[in-house]
Amino acid sequence: MDEQPEAVQEPPLGETRAAGALDRRAELSEFLRTRRARLKPEDVGLPTFGRHRRVPGLRREELAQLAGVSVAYYTRLEQGNGRNVSAEVLDAIARALQLSDAEHAHLTHLAKPKAHKKKRSARPQQVRGALRQLIDTLDGIPAYVTGRRSDILVWNRMAAAVFGDWSELPAQERNWARMVFLRPDYRNLYLDWDQKAADMVSYLRMDAGCHPDDPLLSALVGELSVKSEEFRRLWATHDVKEKSHGLKRMRHPLVGEITLSFETFHLPDDHEQNLITYHAEPGSPSADALRLLASWGTDATRAPMVRP
Q1: 131 CB burial (10 A radius; 0-12, 13-18, 19+)
Q2: Cα-flanking dihedrals φ and ψ of residue 256, to 5°?
Q3: Would you say residue 306 has pLDDT above 80?
Q4: Of 293, 2, 9, which Cα lies nearest the Cα of 135?
Q5: Contact at 8 Å (CB) between 217 and 149?
Q6: What does the alpha-carbon distance between residue 113 and residue 107 come to, in Å, rounded to a whole number?
Q7: 135: exposed, middle or buried (C-beta count within 10 Å: 0-12, 13-18, 19+)?
Q8: CA 3 – CA 294 distance, rounded (Å)
Q9: Fewer CB within 10 Å, N side or C side of the chain?
Q10: Residue 144's beta-bridge partner residues?
């Protein structure tokens, strides 16, 4: 198993504003505003009067009409005041804004947050021993477990062969967002890096909606905002999504271009952890490349991620 056997320890908190909780009211306000701005009257069956509109997307009055609420009520909600809003009203607003399931869930988390125990997010993240054994037995299949904030908790030998040997990184740096935005080797690894980057920000936004009081998540967002202009731009879109399945195209330094399908399995006993596996289409060049990496064993993990 290519992982540290002890629990991942959280880094100490700093004293900067970035280490505090995210502003849930501001998040709710900006999320509603950006979702409203992406819709046009014709998208929702409303007439368009005039060629020039002072605001992008729908007006608040138009959105309130579609949702069946007063303009004053919707305005208070978009200003971040979600106190006492009902699930029925949120459902109506979600339909009017044509939100995806993930966006609907995010809106609910922001408007009606669940109570969390204090410092719950600061506990060390641990992976069950049986799950560690399972991913270690997935011979030829890259697999790893992620936790809060897309931290990488455990992984198998094939994951190290494809993505690099994470055991060489300090525990606090084994984080997908950090690697995607701050490491040039991962920009080189992903042929569709722009999509990978957008996905990572969307996952973090979803996490922030569920745990706005997580100081480590706030610190991570603050650090990435300072160090990456691309992260700042994507964070401002307020897009959210849950990781599920899809394709990733990569340029591996040893075997060249490979296309892998990934699947995400949400663990029933810990909703903050996900098992992610990758596989290639049988008989494809990518399948041959995975077998080649498997045959090289630990030698594959020593290859530099960036081509010379």
Answers
A1: middle
A2: 80, -150
A3: no
A4: 2
A5: yes
A6: 10
A7: buried
A8: 18
A9: C
A10: 155, 276
Alpha helices in the chain (DSSP H): 24-37, 60-67, 71-78, 87-96, 101-111, 129-136, 157-163, 176-182, 184-189, 193-210, 215-227, 229-235, 285-296, 298-301
pLDDT, one tens digit per residue, over 243-287 is 899 999 999 999 999 999 999 999 988 888 999 999 999 999 999
CA distances from 174 to 62, 106, 163, 246, 288 (A): 45, 26, 12, 22, 28
CA angle at 64 for the pair 62 and 66, rounded to the nearest 5° = 70
- The whole-number pLDDT of residue 298 equals 59
Residue that is written with structure tokens 């650090």 in the block: 223
CB-based contacts of 26: which residues, under 8 Å, 6+ apart?
80
